[in-house]
Fold this protein.
Amino acid sequence: MAYVLQNLLNALTTGSSYALIALGYTMVYGVLRLINFAHGDVYMLGAFIGAYVAQILNPSTNGTLAEQSILQALAGIVVAMLICGLIGYLIERIAYRPLRRSPKLSALITAIGVSMLIEYLAQMQWQLPTSVIGFAHSVADTLHLHGGPFSVIRRAIEGRYFGPNTQSYQLIAGTNKSIPWFTDNLHMSVTLKDLIVIGTTAIALGVLRYIVLHTRMGKAMRAVSINYDAARLMGINIDRTISFTFVLGSMLAAVGGCLEGLNHGNLNNPLIGIQTGLKAFVAAVVGGIGNIPGAAAGGLLIALLETAAVMVHDSHNTAILSPYKDAIAFLVLIAVLLFRPEGLFGKAVPEKV
Amino acid sequence: MKNLLQTAVVLCGIGFSALLGVAADPAGDPIKIGSLNSMTGGNSTFGQSCDGGIRLAAEERNKAGGVLGRPVEIVTADTESQADKTSLAVGKLIDNDHVISVLGEVASSRTNAAAPICQKAKIPLLTPASTNPKVTKFGNYVFRSCFVDDLQGLWIAKFTANDLKLKRAAILTDIKNDYSTGLTKVLKTEFPKLGGEIIGNETYQAGDQDFKGQLTSLKALNPDIIFLPGYYTEVTSICAQARELGITCPFIGGDGWDSDKTLTNGGAAVEGCYFTNHYDASDPDPRVQAFVSKYKSSHNGETPDAMAVLGYDAANILFDAIDRSKSTEGPAIRDALAQTKDFPGVTGNITIDKNRNAVKPGVVLQIKGGKFMLVKRVEP
């Protein structure tokens, strides 16, 4: 029983990342009928930015990893959200808006191009030229700017960003111990970390639901996704609505990225956006592309299926399906597209001839 | 006539440099040797250490007159810790940089990618640290100067069964790496022979971030110890997540654990765990300490790990082979390498056997107090 419960918890935390990213895919598809392939990379950027904020605010000393406080982690999430929101906005303005009247294929190819651009730019090590750092330091020294916020700024200027190496994400101090009530009564391990990930995701989903159902912008988003031209005729500012959708989706992806970092403590490389992004995309399709609750449910479902795959063992206790757990998501995608292409929660819209 | 003049000039030149003596500065075109290593990517410390050891050996050699009287130049090609990039990198070394021999890679999967290319090009490949048996089976141009996993797996099994006296073990295999799958196979054969029982086998892939599913299954089996024959990158996450789930048994692995990142990223989670390795940096043997201090002084006080010392030894073995072969041609160097006998390396006296593997001793280390501590020496 504890075994199943523990796996359920694992699925819940993994599913949270998929859900947050899937929402971005589904919202953009809803308003633009475009699969934004670059979305997974925005998630990656969010994760890395969160890691760098933690590093700048709380540098590690003498080789051991530092641990951050809740406030610092929150700062990381906020900064990541702001920067990723901006990046999402820029991607839309620069890459997709000029192609709005072009065939859908052009936009799709551009999306793939943007995705690869971000991935390969992130594989390079970025650092300000030494002359610029030196100049900044001399300016700060002459103006006697030391200590407090200035040392933070100095660290930010000196930092080396991205590159193909593993990046560690600072743990929030004290969150990786199992909470005793769960260990004693349910014989499972539930850490504060798990609760933070699930809780933050729930809050993000709640905020999104409020925005979509109870604000004017949300109403505009829903209108555009139902009928683009009618929405225009009704006086909705399409450009602003679409930009808003992108920014919102990117912010959610950034939250997902930071939570992933907080949960696992390290980000393997700048290509993590591909794997997770792809699964989130599958989740969005499975739930019904364009359907917001569907995306969240899809994320959870894919995570559950993956976890179930790892649970299958043969008589020698060898995990026989575990090597294929990543393939499970794609098998489900094919099955859904074959038998229920509108997704589990989508509405089958007959094509009017 | 012209030929005779050229030959006469060359002979005079050789005679002149011979008169200058062995300790003269090496002159002439540099001899280019490739360093095929993962300078970036998931296993970046492996490549950086190994390359560091190779370059230290080259620097020393150049101060002592070079190889065949010529300076040695190490050309490093970054494999980015990926097998497909390794093929590209070794191709660049052979075709663009015209190296006469290649040292590398550390990870067996990547060496397995480079070996057929070197074999075909008849460029000798000497791997300092790849322990998977498949590596040297690619052909007679592929050598290794470290022990093989058949031996390493046996040491792990023996240590667990005889020294730690633990009988119920589970294995967590990295199915993406030949190193890990190879060691798993050996452990599955050898451990039962020593009276132990493999109670379960979970798998993961290098690059995974989440291991909670596999660890939850392992926890349900309640093993005495978990074999973790993987690379340090995932080992630290696995141990951290295991401790979070409440798994308290120790983990034991192989030389893939050897990296300072195991200590910094692992922290308390890896405390008390064991792994087998090629050498122990605190070994009082004068050869080891001489190397450690040399490395520290040229690397900001950083203690060399096994990959560094293996790179150093492999480079020196290669230089010695080139000297003995008196040639920069692949076939001649290959033959000289195959005849390496009792070469005095830092990691022991190294002999290349008829399968082009080295027969060497090893050590078992334990992580205690945030440091690697020697527990036992093991002989082949």
Remarks:
- Chain A touches chain B at residues 3, 6-7, 10, 13-14, 63-65, 163-166, 168, 176-178, 183, 189, 191, 193, 260, 263-269, 272, 306-307, 310-311, 313, 316-319, 322-323, 325-326 (CB under 8 Å).
- The beta strands of chain A are 167-168, 266-267.
